[in-house]
Design a protein that fits this description.
- By secondary structure, the protein is of the alpha/beta class.
- The chain has one domain.
- The chain has 12 helices and 17 strands.
- The strands form 3 sheets. Strands 1, 3, 4, 5, 6, 9, 10, 11, 14, 15, 16 and 17 form a 12-stranded mixed β-sheet that branches. The chain has a 3-stranded antiparallel β-sheet with strand order 2-7-8.
- α2 packs across α4 and α8 crosses α12.
Length: 383
Amino acid sequence: MKRRAFVKLLAAPPLASTLHAQESGDIPKYKIVTPYKLAATPGMPGPYPGQVVSVKSAKCLSEDGLKINGEVVREMMERGMRALTGDARTIDAWRRFFTPDDVVGVKVNAGGRPWVISSYEVVAETIRNLMEVGVNPGQIYIYERFQDQMDEINYAPRVPAGVNIFAAERANRRIDNHNYDQRVYVETDFFGEDDTRSNMIRMVSQKLTKIINIPNMKDHGATGATGCLKNIAYGNFSNVARTHFKGVSHTYSFVGTLASVEPVRSRTVLQIMDGLRGVWHGGPFAPTLKYVFFPRTIMFGTDPVAIDRLLLDIIDDERKRHGAISIWNRDRTSLAVGDVARRDKDPNVNTSIREPGHVEYAASLGLGVHDIRRIEVKEVEVF
């Protein structure tokens, strides 16, 4: 196993992004309402702040990247969990986080279907390990916000019988709110919208005791990159797309604010970044292979900020390889507001000023370690 610690200093663009948002007074006032209290040891950043295990294997995908090798993924998962905790046995690593009494939510990402989703193999291996610990299938919930996306992916045939598949809304139309908790919400007015509240999914607040977050490596037109933080934040609350409008994005502060709300912060105990495939432009969607790349990587940790800080470089470096505009670029001449079709044809066009500084903002809320000099990466290669 290779082991190294990053010592690269932060570049100037991230600092400029942070100062832009703070000096211009762009951070809205947030009203956070929740009856839940912070746990003595919250899941984020958890017991391994600033630590990331990165497991790579050239054999996890076919040469063209279209097929996933489930046996290799299993070994990557086992090696990754053991490297994170230091345990000799995989089951002991999982027992550090889960007991047979837990009700566990597996927060997947369905937006990048069909090519860049929380893969069947990673999700199935996660559930297999939960069951090895003694968690009953009926106490496991694979969940996402939108039922139409989950129907299209259809995890059910790939996981054991009895595992629950849940979605909070029928589709992304903001008309179906009965599965959200009216007691837990963040309220703020971004652009004078009528509905200024974002409520937490009721199952998350009232039923789950632990959450495993399985995001992907994806570009995003508002945040710059979407990984652990956005998947656990926007994926657990209603009415979140209102943050970006006419080229302006409030994702800088809203992503971290949502992720910090109890009980999401305390119950999200494990981050498994599915980087078998990724999206370097046009994300968070991946309807074709046009902007898909193949990192062939799975990352493990409890600190979502540390993983996402590495993700920013992964996405930006891949964009550079294709000659595309940086996710840190704040030049308004790149904007084609509302013209998604033009953006999809030209990677040097933005529909919003991106806010990759959301990772640093989340760190300021105590969700993890942002300073690249304090992030330790354990590299594991599976041959």
